[in-house]
Design brief:
The structure is a single chain. This protein is mostly helical. The protein folds into 2 domains: 279 residues, Alpha Horseshoe (Serine Threonine Protein Phosphatase 5, Tetratricopeptide repeat), CATH 1.25.40; 90 residues. It contains 22 helices and no strands. Helix 13 runs antiparallel to helix 14. The protein starts with a helix and ends with a helix. The relative contact order is 0.09.
Amino acid sequence: MSRCTVLFAIGFLTQACVTGEIQMDQARYLAELDEAKTLIGPEWPLPPDVRLTTSGDVYMANLDGLIASLEQQLRRRTDDSLVARLARTRYHRFQITGLLADAEQARSRLSDAYDRTHGPAIDLSYAEVLMGFHEFQLAQEVLQTALGNGADPDQVLVINDRINRATGAAVSGPVNGNPVTLVSRANELVDRGQVLGASRLLKEAQGRYSDTAPYVLAWIQVQQGIVFLRYRDYSSARLFFAAARDRLPQYALATEHLAETESALGNHRFAAELYRSVASQTGNPEFMHQRAIIERLLGNDAAAERLAQRARNGYVMLLEKYPLMYADHGARYYLSVGDTPTALRLAQMNIDKRQDLGARILLLETHRSPSNIAAACAQLRALRQAGFASPELLYLAQDMREECGHQ
């Protein structure tokens, strides 16, 4: 137990003690970050010409063709396996392109099938799609139905563990060599300040993936990029986002994060073009908002205002339609435009449904107004004492040391 922890326990946490502990934390985590960067090389991230996968254009054309074929088959006959496969394929296309209509259609198909007599394939697919809409409680109820319909308990456990990770609950499944499981474990390590261990797991996940489909490999590389992005190492993050986008150009998550890093590095014109592309592809107001910020930096005030208005309208529509799905992004948007009451309302809605670290940090950030600073400082101390040491907490502790010095 550190001296600071002892002092806190008896009620005498001093500003000097907080500052000293933050400085030690920062030095330790940044040293580990430097070690994680040494893993970068010719095979991390693997470029498309070294580790061959199906080209993005061919892969997306195959997805489009499969969806059209399944739709045609379902017009001739109703079959649970066809409905589940179509829904999974549409939802997978949404995961790549970010086009919400695919997720909506997947959910609609599965909801209709769930309301009639059906088998476990419908339940399992429906639970996964509901999780994407942040309908976590309903997803778990569907999983219980799946067990009653004879679903494989191991399959149910895998999905339930993913829900538990998303909501901050305990995870019961084993940590195995599956790339998806390795990525989940890596994200947990980052939240604990173990960036080197996380990066090693992500590199291992890349090595264990042997399929020719490009999505999972691009997703793994994006996850490593996000790790560096969270530590504000924009140059290293850019390497991974660019590699993922080169492998699967239609991957919206790679494009939006590449735009974010290019903007942070001062490459505003390129970032604006990337945001234009991903906003056009997805219709997501978040990317319109980010592009509006960049257009203002470039002196394009009229274009910036048009984009800002579209973003405002877009968030109103999305939050009205899917409040749980967009509560976290909506809270960050309203916080960035200075509407703290709306941000706080959405952050509270978010944490009412999920208590993972991201939701707790978001609530902390919305509490940073002068009238709520005591609550923010209490939340920060509680998270640090619980063993969380994510980069966001590191920077928040540094930024808030003056504000919390006498709390």
